[in-house]
Amino acid sequence: MVKIVLNKQDKNGIGINSKIKDKIFNPFFTTKPSGEGVGLGLSLVNKIIVGQHHGSIKVETQAGKYTEFIIEIPMANSTTFLPERDES
Question: pLDDT digit string (tens) for 20-62?
C-alpha cells in the first residue's frame, strides 16, 4: 500500500466547512461562483483513485486551520507490468 498525505495549513484560508465536507467528491459540486468552476476535479480524482486503482481518498479538515487529503493506493505486483517473454 502506498500512502500519500497532502496537508495544507490555512493561515488565511477557510478550510472545508463541515456542512459540505461529505459533498466535495460529488460530480458538479463546487463552492465557486457560476462560471468559475464545474465541480469535476475532486470527483475525477476520486473516480481514478477508488474506481481504477482500488484505493481510497479521505479528507480531514478543520475550518480555518487545515485541510488534509489522505490517499492510499495498493501496490501492484511488479510482474503484472512485465511483457511476456518469447522463449523461441
Answer: 999 999 999 998 888 888 999 999 999 999 999 999 999 998 8
Give the end-to-end CA distance of the chain in Å, rounded to a whole number.
Answer: 37
Longest dimension (CA), the chain: 65
DSSP for residue 38 = -
Strands (E), the chain: 2-9, 56-62, 66-73
- Cα separation, 42 vs 64, in Å, equals 20
Given a cut of 90, is residue 9 above it in pLDDT?
A: no
Residue 6 and residue 66: Cα distance in Å, rounded?
Answer: 10
Nearest 5°: CA angle at 46, between 63 and 2?
Answer: 95
Using a pLDDT cut of 90, give the percent of the chain over it.
42
Sequence spans of domains, the chain: 7-67
Strand partners, 9: 66
